[in-house]
Prior knowledge:
eight-stranded mixed β-barrel; Sortase_dom-sf; Sortase, Chain: A
Amino acid sequence: MTDQPPTPNTTDATPPRQDKKLNTNAIIAVALILAGLGVLLYPVLATQWNNYQQSRAAEAYSQLEKGVPPEVLNKAWEEAQQYNANLGDIDPGDAWTSSDDESSPAYQRYLKYLSVLNATEAMGRIVLPSIKSDLPIFHGTSDRVLARGVGHLYGTDLPVGAPGELGEDGAIPPAPPEGRLSALSAHTGLQNATLWDNLNQVEKGDPVYVAAAGEKLKYEVRDIEVVTPDKTSLLRRTPNKDLVTLITCTPYGINTHRLIITAERVPMDPQEESVFDGQGTTWQWWMWAILAAAAIIVLLLIRWWWKNFRKQKGEEEPATSGPGDTTES
């Protein structure tokens, strides 16, 4: 008998095209889910990055300040005090609905005060420990300024407090008869930065710290009010009071009113200077909500992948084992 040629092995057929199509669809689905996660997480990442940049700018101000000769800082401080003494009583208007003529000679002169640290463009730094806020203070309240940190409301006193030296026991100098008031503004509800989103959580008695021209001042919250934008009387000096006023829009996302927090200067313990070492990272409820949603999506994606992986592995095992082998005795 002649040997018959071996029959071709039909069990090694190529995988069906349908399986390839399913794999391609799965890859596309996973890619779309990952892209969606990126879009979902972007606001959190962008906000935290901008918060980091603003906090870094505030800390950079203090670091650069340490490298400036004391006589330069003293001169800047004295010039700022003289600016306040010559200011007079004016209505600065609302930080968001009114605009300043930044090209005017008076405004250009204003920009030169407390500008000893040109590298940062900041005139000072403000820290609110109760809401973990640490931001640089810039001249004016233009859109560019308010996107970067806290703006000083032109027409109000520079944030250097009342003139005079501290007493031996740390007593603050008395405010002049006409008083002093520095108004500082920052955004609430900005898409990619926290800024003063949490200012509505500040309570009476909370401390407010300001650093400018080598000096550090402490204020204590005395009054909290919500007013319409045209009510600017709270932005004017109070006789014999050394005040700082914090302003932001409210309610969150609606911005029809102004939240105005007034704080009065109080003695500062030298140990409290540690608040300028940094306030850490601020996490808001919506950030946690987005992170929780992203975590759930990732877990569901892993579960789906694992389920399909086990299913595919289960289908491959019978195909690779082949028909049962029998041995002849």
